[in-house]
Amino acid sequence: MAKDPLAEAGFHFDELNKLRVLEPDVSQNTAELKEECKEFVDKIGHFQKIVGGLISTVDGLAKEAETEKMKAIGARNLLSSVAKQREEHQQLLQALIAEKKMQLERYRVEYEALSRVEAEQSEFINQFILQK
């Protein structure tokens, strides 16, 4: 079989009988590869959109979690502060109770002393009246 002189020179005819530099199989493979590459790039673009949406969703959730975390820390600090204030108030009230007890004891001692003085004076007055 005689070889085609154009094929030996690297020229080929395609299915439309157009003169091509590439062999028809190589040209077809190249076209298929080009289409596959286009599909791959489209899929990568779609994947990037999905991943971008996922990342923005996760970022939003992270911000919400951080906000809730700060609220929880603030509430815990407030609770701790309230507990400390309650403890300080309790200590203040206990000190006030102790002071009032001391004052009551002083008043009781003073009352007893005044009661003795009153009894002595009443007895003195009674004896003075009886002597007259």
TrEMBL record:
UniProt keyword list: Cell projection, Coiled coil
Gene Ontology CC entries for this record: axoneme; centrosome; ciliary basal body; ciliary base; intraciliary transport particle; neuron projection; non-motile cilium
Any GO BP: cilium assembly
Any coiled-coil regions, as ranges: 79-117
Subcellular location: Cell projection, Cilium
One Pfam assignment: IFT20
Record flagged with keyword Membrane: no
Keyword Coiled coil (UniProt): yes
Protein name: Intraflagellar transport protein 20 homolog
The species this protein was found in: Oryzias javanicus
